[in-house]
Amino acid sequence: KNLILEKKKTGVFLSVVGMGIGNYKDDKLETLAKNGNGNYCVINSSSEVEDMIVKKYEQLIFTIAKDVKAQVEFNPALIKSYRLLGYENREISHSDFNNDQVIAEPFGSGATCVALYEIELADGDVENAGLKYQKPVLTDSKEYCTVSVRYKLPMADTSELISKPLDHIGEMTTNLKLAYICYAIAEKFRQSNKADLKDELFARYLAETMKDETIENLNGDKIELLKFLAK
Question: Could you say which of 99, 110, 130, 210 has the lowest number of CB atoms within 10 Å?
Answer without folding.
Answer: 130
